[in-house]
Amino acid sequence: MDVAANSRALDLEEDEYLELLRLFIRTSVANLSDLSRAVDQNRADQTAALAHKIKGAALNLNLPAVARHARDIETESKQGSLENVSSSLSGLKRSVEEVSSAVAGWMDKP
Q1: DSSP label at 30?
Q2: What is the pTM of this model?
């Protein structure tokens, strides 16, 4: 993830973009926990709503991989089936972890 390019594309200063990313990570971790629970409880409506929330935030921050996985979960959930969301959920978790690692790496730069 290119923090500098994304911040320019969104017409933000890098520190502003990084702050938004940190907020995204905090809320996404909580949302992912709720999302996993909704999937485990076979609650398709709640799963779709949480995936939609994550997708929207990811799109606003120019995080296409996160948005793609969330969209896949949302689409399947809206069809009433949660049978095939496990791989998308794993991908979503990985993508959020990658964003978190990129932010941490960016913060460590001199």
Answers
A1: H
A2: 0.89
